[in-house]
């Protein structure tokens, strides 16, 4: 089985267009794993798919994108569905990073970080992840350093997606401390 292809399709279903799979995310983004399997099996490629495959997909993935808990599965970040996924807020590390192409910098300096088509702005606790994220769009991304400590003190809420990724509704330019 092509686990990378499976992961991309599961992300599409759980982050972007669950209705195409006759799925409805609950307020925390969970769906019933059996319903997802049943829906994916309609496609010849996934006709023999079972829960074990989804577990292997998560285990083999380069990033922790999905999680399974009992009879449910969800995407941990990246959502663009109309109904905003509810996340519990958590105190962030003092500094977080965001990798982006140079051509966005002027607009970011002016407007701050905005979620664009996703529900949240994605930040990371390490520069390596930020570089990887930025490299999706540019060979030499700019790595922005975010003063998460001050933002948090000022009441901005941060949400923990996985070990390295943090979510936030937006980041005002005054919290971007360095590029
Ligand atoms: C930029 C992937 C102009 C922002 C990744 C980014 C990540 C602005 C783009 C996760 C802006 C949005 C999310 C402003 C923000 N003006 N541009 N004011 N504010 N931007 O894809 O963070 O591999 O929605 O810098 O690895 O790139 O799929 O967000 O370049 O973890 O699991 O607007 O998605 O994860 O792009 O990526 P995105 P992102 P997966």
Summarize the structure.
The protein contains six helices and nine strands.
Question: Helical residue percent?
Answer: 25-40%
What average pLDDT do the residues reach? 97
Secondary structure category: alpha+beta
Number of helices: 6
**Biggest β-sheet description:** 3 strands, antiparallel
User: What CATH architecture of the largest domain would you give?
Assistant: Alpha-Beta Barrel
What's the CATH C level of the largest domain? Answer: Alpha Beta
Quickly list its features.
NAD; Arc Repressor Mutant, subunit A; binds ligand HQG; RNA_2'-PTrans_C; 3-stranded antiparallel β-sheet; 2 domains; alpha+beta; Probable RNA 2'-phosphotransferase; elongated; 9 strands; RNA_2'-PTrans_KptA; transferase; ADP-ribosylation fold
How would you sum up this structure, described in words?
This is Probable RNA 2'-phosphotransferase. Removes the 2'-phosphate from RNA via an intermediate in which the phosphate is ADP-ribosylated by NAD followed by a presumed transesterification to release the RNA and generate ADP-ribose 1''-2''-cyclic phosphate (APPR>P). May function as an ADP-ribosylase. It is built from six helices and nine strands; from the N terminus they run αβααβββαβαβαβββ. By secondary structure, the protein is of the alpha+beta class. The protein folds into two domains: 3-75, Arc Repressor Mutant, subunit A (Orthogonal Bundle); 95-178, ADP-ribosylation fold (Alpha-Beta Barrel). The strands form three sheets. It has a three-stranded antiparallel sheet with strand order 1-3-2. It has a three-stranded antiparallel sheet with strand order 4-6-9. A hairpin with a 2-residue loop joins β2 (66-69) and β3 (72-75). The protein is elongated, with a radius of gyration of 17 Å. The mean pLDDT is 97. Bound molecules: ligand HQG.
